[in-house]
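sanity check this:
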Amino acid sequence: VYNATPTWGVTVGDALGVADPVLTQHLHLHQGQTFSFLGIRVSSPLSLVVNGKRPPGSALAPPRLALSNPSAPP
């Protein structure tokens, strides 16, 4: 689950409700092999319902800012 903290997650057998899912078909070619699979995205783990309950606020990972400047000297 994207944007979830490493300490929170779902397990096999959990009932999962997904509000406003975005279904995407992924197709990747790698070393002559084709990999095709479906992906479901939601805006936040807090928009899920797991076993009839919303995840706690602590399930959402804090934002992280990553900067890079390829033209800067090392």
In short: The beta strands are 16-18, 22-30, 33-41, 48-50.
